[in-house]
C-alpha cells in the first residue's frame, strides 16, 4: 500500500474536464491534434482534474496534452475507466501506457450492465481491487451504478468504491442514490450537469436559472455547476471553446444561497430528463 499517493478530492479537483462521448474516436489510429490542443487549453485555463476512459479511445490524446501543457501529472487528478471486463489488469496497464503515466488517482469500472449475474459483477470488482493493491492508483470506484449494483459488490468487497460517477443534474437528482452514497462514504460524481440548458430545454428551470445567473453576474452553466459543487458533488463538464472552459471554472468562485440551491432542486424536480441508458431505465425511473 506504500505506493498510494491519494489526493483529497477538494478545491480545484472537484471540477473535472471531461474527454468523454463528445470526443469519442472509433479506433486508436492517428492522434487527434485538435483534441490534444483542446485538453491542453483546458489545463492552461486552470483545470487540474481530467476525466478519461478506455471506451472513448482518447487516452493517447489526453497523455499528449498533459506533456504539451508542461504540467506534471503529479499536480493533476486523473480519472481513468475500464470498459474491458475480460482482463481488466491488461486494460489498466494499457491505459497507463496510453496516458504516459505510471499512476492515476481514480480507476473506475465504467458500467455494471455487462454482468449477467451478481457473481460476474463481483468478480470484476475483485480485479479492480487487485489493481488498487498494486499501488498504481490512489482509489477505485464505479460509474453508472445504481444502489442495487453498489450493494451487490459490497456483499463481497474488500475495498468499497470511493466514488460513483453518475448522470446527475436538477432534472435527474437521484436523491435516494445520493443519500446512499453519503451513508456509505462514497463520493458522488455528476456527469451531464448542464442538461437543463443543453439537452432538456424548454423546462421549468429556464427562468429560475436566468434570474439567479443575472443576480450573481454569471452564466446559467455556472449556476448549474455550482448547484452541484456546493452540495459536495464532484462535477465533470467539457467544452471545445476556451471561453466556455474559463466560464465553467467561475463555478469555483461564486457562491449560491441555501435558498437558491433549494429552489433549483425544488423546481428541477418538476421535470424528469435522462440522457443516458434510456434502454435500461423505465421512462419515469428517477433512481
UniProtKB/TrEMBL annotation:
<dbReference type="InterPro" id="IPR036812">
    <property type="entry name" value="NAD(P)_OxRdtase_dom_sf"/>
</dbReference>
<feature type="active site" description="Proton donor">
    <location>
        <position position="56"/>
    </location>
</feature>
<keyword id="KW-0521">NADP</keyword>
<dbReference type="InterPro" id="IPR020471">
    <property type="entry name" value="AKR"/>
</dbReference>
<dbReference type="InterPro" id="IPR023210">
    <property type="entry name" value="NADP_OxRdtase_dom"/>
</dbReference>
<feature type="domain" description="NADP-dependent oxidoreductase">
    <location>
        <begin position="15"/>
        <end position="267"/>
    </location>
</feature>
<dbReference type="GO" id="GO:0016652">
    <property type="term" value="F:oxidoreductase activity, acting on NAD(P)H as acceptor"/>
</dbReference>
<comment type="similarity">
    <text>Belongs to the aldo/keto reductase family.</text>
</comment>
<comment type="function">
    <text>Catalyzes the initial reaction in the xylose utilization pathway by reducing D-xylose into xylitol. Xylose is a major component of hemicelluloses such as xylan. Most fungi utilize D-xylose via three enzymatic reactions, xylose reductase (XR), xylitol dehydrogenase (XDH), and xylulokinase, to form xylulose 5-phosphate, which enters pentose phosphate pathway.</text>
</comment>
<feature type="site" description="Lowers pKa of active site Tyr">
    <location>
        <position position="81"/>
    </location>
</feature>
<dbReference type="InterPro" id="IPR018170">
    <property type="entry name" value="Aldo/ket_reductase_CS"/>
</dbReference>
<protein>
    <recommendedName>
        <fullName>D-xylose reductase [NAD(P)H]</fullName>
        <ecNumber>1.1.1.307</ecNumber>
    </recommendedName>
</protein>
<dbReference type="Pfam" id="PF00248">
    <property type="entry name" value="Aldo_ket_red"/>
</dbReference>
<dbReference type="InterPro" id="IPR044494">
    <property type="entry name" value="AKR3C2/3"/>
</dbReference>
<feature type="binding site">
    <location>
        <position position="110"/>
    </location>
    <ligand>
        <name>substrate</name>
    </ligand>
</feature>
<keyword id="KW-0560">Oxidoreductase</keyword>
<dbReference type="GO" id="GO:0016616">
    <property type="term" value="F:oxidoreductase activity, acting on the CH-OH group of donors, NAD or NADP as acceptor"/>
</dbReference>
Amino acid at each position: 500500500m506504500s505506493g498510494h499517493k491519494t489526493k483529497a478530492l477538494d478545491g480545484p479537483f472537484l471540477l473535472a474536464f471531461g474527454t468523454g462521448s463528445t470526443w469519442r474516436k472509433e479506433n486508436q489510429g492517428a492522434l487527434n491534434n485538435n483534441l490534444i490542443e483542446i485538453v491542453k487549453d483546458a489545463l492552461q485555463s486552470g483545470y487540474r482534474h481530467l476525466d478519461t476512459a478506455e471506451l472513448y479511445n482518447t487516452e493517447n490524446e489526453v497523455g499528449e496534452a498533459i506533456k504539451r501543457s508542461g504540467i506534471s501529472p503529479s499536480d493533476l487528478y486523473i480519472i481513468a475507466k475500464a470498459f474491458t471486463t475480460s482482463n481488466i489488469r491488461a486494460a489498466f496497464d494499457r491505459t497507463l501506457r496510453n496516458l504516459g503515466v505510471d499512476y492515476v488517482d481514480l480507476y473506475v469500472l465504467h458500467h455494471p450492465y455487462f454482468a449477467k449475474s451478481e457473481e460476474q459483477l463481483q468478480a470484476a470488482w475483485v480485479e479492480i481491487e487487485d489493481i488498487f493493491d498494486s499501488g498504481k492508483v490512489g482509489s477505485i470506484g464505479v460509474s453508472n451504478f445504481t444502489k442495487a449494483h453498489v450493494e451487490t459488490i459490497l456483499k463481497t468487497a474488500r475495498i468499497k468504491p470511493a466514488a460513483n460517477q453518475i448522470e446527475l443534474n436538477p432534472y435527474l437528482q437521484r436523491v435516494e442514490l445520493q443519500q446512499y452514497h453519503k451513508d456509505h462514504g462514497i463520493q458522488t460524481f455528476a456527469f451531464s450537469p448542464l442538461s437543463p440548458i443543453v439537452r432538456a430545454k424548454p423546462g421549468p428551470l429556464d427562468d429560475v436559472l436566468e434570474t439567479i445567473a443575472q443576480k450573481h453576474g454569471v452564466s446559467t452553466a455556472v449556476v448549474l455547476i455550482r448547484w452541484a459543487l456546493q452540495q459536495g458533488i464532484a462535477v465533470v463538464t467539457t467544452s471545445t471553446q476556451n471561453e466556455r472552459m474559463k466560464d465553467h471554472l467561475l463555478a469555483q468562485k461564486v457562491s449560491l444561497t441555501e435558498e437558491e440551491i433549494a429552489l433549483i432542486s425544488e423546481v428541477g424536480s418538476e421535470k424528469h430528463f435522462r440522457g443516458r441508458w434510456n434502454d435500461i431505465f423505465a421512462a419515469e425511473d428517477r433512481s
